[in-house]
Design brief:
Layout: E1 7-9, E2 13-15, H1 20-25, E3 34-39, E4 42-47, E5 55-59, H2 65-78, E6 82-86, H3 92-103, E7 108-113, E8 117-122, H4 131-155, H5 158-187, H6 189-195, H7 199-228, H8 234-259, H9 263-291, H10 296-327
Parallel strand pairs: 5-6
Antiparallel strand pairs: 1-2, 3-4, 6-8, 7-8
Helix pairs in contact: 2-3, 2-5, 4-5, 4-7, 4-8, 5-6, 5-7, 7-10, 8-9, 8-10, 9-10
């Protein structure tokens, strides 16, 4: 840390010198324009640069399959707009993995292919992406997935179960978008300003989006189990439907708390959701007791479904906790 004394020039203008080491490293010299970003009692300074797309290169010679897919997704989340993948020779399996990765990302397409490289590009303008819209969309999809997963189980409807499983890809794509936006706000105050959302709020939305992604995963798990189960006893079906309804209420209340503009309303909703977790725990124990009278194989599968619903409620509780922190006074 370095300190500088503020001086007055011309009788009304406050000036302060910049550390020479920082200025040299960032190519700031006489005549260079810098940008200031005020955040409450903090003033962030950064050299002004023309808006340009970030390019990155990755050697994929030793990567294939899921590792290559994850590497591409990591480059995307890290903020690269143009990603050049290079190797002595790009194999057919590698091209297949790269295409799989681009299909799992929003707005990304293969721009160029040669024998030794593949270039993919994000065609979306990052400044036009909205973290609020992405999280809202995740909320709608994940909650509908959970409801439909239990419906598929109760009605023994394989079509609904398969549809839920397919929708998990939509949630995963949105989760990567949220992660990309969040990391951009950490790197650049300019990104946070363009987004129009305080960086602390971006953290809260990112944290909550992670919980929604996990809810979607559990909805997928329930659907996969539903495909293996036949009809279940009506009392158990009714109990599971009630448990799902209680879980969805907690998720709904938690997300309402997160998005509430009024801090008092956010606090009230957050506490309501947290307190409802205790009722879910009791409800879960009651359903578990009902399963003891069933066939062991069926009981085990249904027990996993009960656990997924309970965990989803806990994720809602985590969102409520985040909402309470977001609504709390800030130092």
């Amino acid at each position: 840390m370095e300190t500088r004394k503020v001086q007055v020039t011309g009788g009304s203008t406050y000036t302060v010198s910049l550390p020479k080491t920082w200025a040299t490293e960032n190519e700031v010299s006489a005549g260079t324009t810098v940008e200031f970003y005020p955040e409450d009692d903090t003033l962030l300074l950064t050299p002004k640069s023309e808006s340009h797309r970030q390019e990155g290169t990755l050697d994929v010679s030793n990567l294939e399959g899921d590792r290559l897919t994850r590497a591409v997704m990591t480059m995307y989340v890290s903020g690269f707009d143009i990603i050049r993948l290079e190797a002595g020779r790009i194999t057919t399996d590698q091209r297949r993995a790269i295409r799989s990765a681009t299909q799992g990302l929003v707005g990304v397409e293969v721009l160029e292919e040669t024998t030794d490289s593949v270039v993919i590009q994000d065609l979306l303008d990052s400044s036009e992406l909205s973290i609020l819209n992405a999280v809202t969309r995740m909320r709608l999809i994940s909650q509908s997935m959970l409801e439909d997963a239990v419906r598929a189980l109760i009605d023994n409807d394989d079509d609904i179960a398969h549809d839920v499983i397919e929708r998990d890809d939509d949630v995963d794509r949105l989760w990567l978008v949220v992660s990309r936006i969040f990391r951009a706000t950490l790197r650049s105050p300019r990104a946070a300003e363009e987004l129009g959302v305080p960086r602390e709020d971006c953290f809260d939305f990112h944290s909550s989006a992670r919980q929604l992604e996990r809810v979607a995963d559990h909805a997928t798990k329930i659907s996969n189990l539903a495909l293996k189960l036949n009809e279940i006893p009506e009392p158990v079906a009714d109990a599971l439907e009630d448990l799902q309804a209680d879980t969805s209420t907690i998720l709904e209340t938690s997300m309402d708390a997160l998005f509430a503009d009024d801090t008092d309303e956010a606090t009230r909703l957050g506490h309501d959701a947290r307190e409802a977790i205790l009722e879910i725990d009791e409800h879960t124990r009651q359903v578990d007791n009902m399963l003891r009278d069933l066939d062991s194989v069926q009981a085990q599968s249904l027990g996993l479904i009960v656990d997924s619903l309970s965990r989803s409620a806990d994720y809602g509780g985590n969102i409520a906790e985040t909402a309470l922190q977001k609504a709390a006074p800030r130092p």
